[in-house]
Amino acid sequence: MMRHRGVGWLVAALALLAIPAAAGEAGGLAGVWEGTLDADGAALRVVFTVSAADGGAYSATLASPDQGAEGIQVREAVLDGRAVRFSVPAVLGQFDGELDDDGEHIAGVWTQAGRELPLALERTAAGPVVVRPQDPPPMVSLYRSEMVTYQNAAAGITLGGTITTPNGDGPFPAVLLISGSGPQDRNETAYGHRPFLVLADNLTKRGIAVLRVDDRGVGMSQGNVAQSTSRDLADDVRAGVEFLRTRPEIDARRIGLLGHSEGGLIAPMVAAETEDVAFVVMLGPPGIVGEEVLYDQARRISEASGETPEGIERGRRLQEAVFEVLKSEPDNAAATERLRAVLKQGVAELPEAAQAELAESLDAFVDGQIRQVVTPWFRFFLAHDPAPALEKVRCPVLALFGGKDLQISPEANRAPLEAALARGGNADHTVRTSDGVNHMFQTATTGLPSEYPKIPETIAPEVLGLIGDWILERFGPK
Predict the structure, then answer these.
(1) What is the C-alpha to C-alpha distance for residues 50 and 21, in angstroms, rounded to an integer?
(2) Where does 361-451 show beta strands of DSSP type E?
(3) Residue 281: enclosing H or E segment and its boundaries?
(4) How does pLDDT run across 103-119, given as a tens digit for each residue?
(5) What is the pLDDT of residues 365-395, one digit of tens each?
(6) Could you tell me which of 295, 335, 301 has the C-alpha nearest to residue 317?
(7) Which of 41, 265, 334, 358 has the fewest CB atoms within 10 Å, measured from its CB?
(8) Left if phi > 0, otherwise alpha if psi is -120 to 50, otherwise beta: which for 211?
(9) What single string gives the DSSP state of each residue in 33-54?
(10) Which residues on neighbouring strands pair with residue 98, listed in sequence order?
């Protein structure tokens, strides 16, 4: 959604987005609601898709079609009398409005990171549909598709997803897909793209079964991603591997993991601790400590966005100050007070135009930034070094980087990752950089996240081919 100009990158944009809920029944708040925000002269459509749940409750997702974003999870969708509230912490946003007498319009205010904009919503027949060239058709007869659930008994939660298996008796090699950071659905839906759907379709048609799973708190899965660390999510992956081992059509000796971004951090954590993982594929994986990833990401995206050297240095100083608080103060309440002072000082050092833009919403903006960084997930990522796990991985590894990736750059991450695998004595590891593709592995021009929704391609065909070829060379039919 919107970002204050001139504020710079405090929390780097690792996260993708979440699962779209199914449309609900008519009546009440259920249905599709569309409106338009005037964001600095740009008209941005906003679409809430609301579903009726048990006991009169609602669930919802948010889409921004003009930015190519869909399926953003709405944590609260509330109708109290005629008062409506949609809370969307994933983008630091909230809508408050009032349903009119005919139940077809909601007049209200959209607040994001403390900034308020009027927003009128109107009930509409259908939400935005983004169709990408590589999306498989709804009915695919070349393989079987089944919705499944299984337990992470240690965490006491149910996880839900989809398994696709080739036609025939098997047993087949299988791969479990692990998404990047943030609450995401089984298709890793982001920017109008569904990369895990495209991956599953491509690999399954080549004879490889694929399990893709909703993240904690998304779709059919229980739990809360923000309150879970990467290690907690690794436990979910282990539960998925155990589930695959129970399936008669799956060869238990040929089960691998494929992780994208943070998923590329989690996959080796799991493979290092069990012999049940036959191979690991990592797409855009971190190879250095999380804090260094965030510094590198912020600098590269700021440079590509045209930020001045002075602005980049100012952003680096602010990041360092914030991270120092997080590293030295484990208590969230105490950290919050210190972070509030650090961030307000950071805003005071901005150019006057940027300060003026934030003047009326400074407290809310600062509080929104703090909420993002005091979570267990962020604290863990900041301090985590992927090298020790990589050194313990003995199974075959394929690591791919995008030559235009500004989020997990090959310049900063490839050599340390490859060195860790070599130090551990991994006898079969392939590390490559695919020129011309971004963090989403699309053929790109700038590599900026703002370009992701504008590219029709979901995953470059040569990347899809390389992944499938590498797996089948080692684990395909002999």
Answers:
(1) 8
(2) 397-402, 429-434
(3) strand 279-283
(4) 889 999 998 867 788 99
(5) 788 788 889 999 999 999 999 999 999 999 9
(6) 295
(7) 41
(8) beta
(9) EEEEEEETTEEEEEEEEEEE-G
(10) 83, 107
Instruction: Give the separation between CA 185 and CA 134, rounded to whole angstroms.
Output: 18
The structural domains of the chain, ordered by start, are 31-124 (2.40.128.120), 143-288+385-475 (3.40.50.1820), 290-381 (no CATH)
Q: Which residues pair with 87 in a beta bridge?
A: 76, 94
Contact 319, 302 (CB under 8 A): no
- Which amino acid, 87? S
Q: What is the mean pLDDT of residues 335-358?
A: 88
Q: 193 exposed, middle or buried (CB, 10 Å; 0-12, 13-18, 19+)?
A: buried
DSSP H or E stretch at residue 468: helix 461-475
For residues 147-164, average pLDDT: 94
Which candidate, 194, 197, 186, 190, places its Cα nearest to that of 72?
A: 190
Q: For residue 152, which phi and psi values (nearest 5 degrees)?
A: -100, 95
Measure the CA–CA gap between 283 and 298, rounded to whole angstroms. 20
- 69-74, strands of its sheet edge to edge: 69-74, 58-64, 42-52, 31-39, 115-124, 105-112, 93-99, 83-88, 76-80
pLDDT attached to residue 56: 61
Contacts of residue 313, defined as CB under 8 A and 6 or more positions apart, other chains included, come to none
Give the mean model confidence (pLDDT) for residues 71-79. 83
Cα dist from 168 to 165, 208, 284, whole Å: 9, 12, 33
For the record, the structure tokens of 353 come out as 């135009």
- Per the prediction, the chain carries an average pLDDT of 87
pTM of the predicted structure, to 2 decimals: 0.78
Structure tokens at 56: 């009169």
Q: Is omega for the bond preceding 171 within 30 degrees of 0, making it cis?
A: yes
On whether the CB atoms of residues 236 and 205 are closer than 8 A, the answer is: no
Angle between helices 230-245 and 376-383 (to 10 degrees): 90
